[in-house]
Write a structure and sequence with these properties.
By secondary structure, the protein is of the alpha+beta class. Helix content is 47%, strand content 16%. The strands form two sheets. Strands 1-4 form a two-stranded parallel ribbon. Strands 2-3 form a two-stranded antiparallel sheet.
């Protein structure tokens, strides 16, 4: 990979905070259907959402178990 290629690849930083399913799907670059399928094995571990949002603790688990795209960097708030 040349230096020019490295400059064109931008990393996106996300902050660990409460996210809803649509926001998580956008971060991962997935459709809502695909995101639901990715979260299904974690259903017991995640527990219930608070309204429409996953808590910061749940988001941390999601980020740990569902592989992020390589251009995403996690930043703690």
């Amino acid at each position: 990979m040349s230096a020019a290629d490295k400059d064109t690849i931008r990393t996106k930083r996300i902050v660990i905070k409460s996210y809803n399913l649509t926001q998580l799907a956008e971060i991962y670059g997935m459709t809502l259907y695909r995101m639901r399928r990715a979260l299904h094995p974690l259903k017991v571990r995640l527990g219930k959402k608070e309204g429409y949002f996953y808590t910061t603790k749940q988001v941390t688990l999601i980020l740990r178990f569902v592989k992020l795209p390589s251009n995403i960097e996690v930043v703690k708030a």
